[in-house]
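Page 37, continued from 36.
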């Protein structure tokens, strides 16, 4: 890790990462050099991109020599890419959820599991802090579903099969809404 990467990582951990994790995403330094830092966003990119100007302002103020900040999503072909030959849609969806979504929602004591895939319809169950959470629908429709659609060409739609009424410790209870 270069000195510049280490300094930007320290700023991320201290000033930015807590709010990014709270929004259901993760962010890391993908590259740093020539005055430009590239940050890779995983989890729910749609939750992070509205913070782009704030993230850039914090990094520019804290790390001398940085002149620009770019936010990117993982490159296809990395973890969570479209199904490879012989890989089912269910396996590909599980891989994306395990690599990108579950680490982000773990901050809310949550987990998402693929229950079944039929005719391109991916059925998922939200567990832990996500079960019964008042923001579960937002997480599904603005975070998980767009991520899966962008990566899985065979996906028709996403169905939540969670029994939200049975949730015992939702991260955001309906009363907090």
């Amino acid at each position: 890790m270069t000195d510049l990467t280490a300094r930007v990582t320290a700023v991320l951990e201290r000033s930015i990462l807590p709010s990014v994790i709270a929004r259901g995403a993760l962010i890391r330094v993908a590259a740093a050099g020539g005055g430009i830092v590239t940050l890779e966003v995983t989890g729910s990119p749609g939750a992070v991109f509205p913070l782009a100007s704030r993230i850039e302002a914090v990094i520019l103020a804290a790390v001398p020599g940085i002149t620009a900040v770019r936010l990117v999503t993982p490159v296809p072909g990395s973890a969570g890419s479209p199904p490879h030959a012989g890989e089912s849609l269910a396996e590909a969806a599980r891989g994306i959820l395990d690599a990108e979504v579950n680490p982000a929602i773990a901050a809310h004591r949550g987990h998402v599991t693929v229950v079944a895939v039929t005719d391109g319809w991916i059925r998922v169950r939200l567990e832990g802090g996500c079960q019964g959470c008042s923001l579960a629908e937002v997480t599904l429709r603005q975070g998980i579903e767009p991520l899966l659609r962008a990566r899985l060409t065979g996906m028709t739609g996403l169905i939540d099969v969670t029994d939200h009424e049975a949730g015992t410790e939702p991260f955001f209870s309906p009363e907090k809404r």
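Residues 89-176 form a domain with the GMP Synthetase; Chain A, domain 3 fold (CATH 3.30.300.130). Flag for discussion at group meeting. The CA atoms of residues 88 and 117 lie 9 Å apart.
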